[in-house]
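Lab manual, section 2.4: Encoding a predicted structure.

Procedure: take the sequence of the chain (89 residues), apply the prediction step described in section 2.3, and record the output as structure tokens. A sample record is shown.
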Amino acid sequence: MAELSDLLAPRLLGKWPAGMRVVVRRERPHPGAQLSQFEEGDGWRYQAFVTNTTTGHLAFLEARHRAHARVEDRIRHAKDSGLGRFPSR
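Recorded output:
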């Protein structure tokens, strides 16, 4: 896991709000995963996320991101299964 904010700041992060951080992590892909040509080169899958949280260790930020991604995935599955058709105000 690494933070790339200092490497990307001059070109990419210049237009973003101050304090944005780019965090990248690599993981072993699960069996049968379809890898891009970039990922096939070394066999790792790379994931990046951006946050404006200025404090906190990278491990904490990454764990928080993964937990939030699981919640969003469950909401998407619930909507696909009919939850989106319930009446609400």
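Check your result against the sample. The mean pLDDT is 80.
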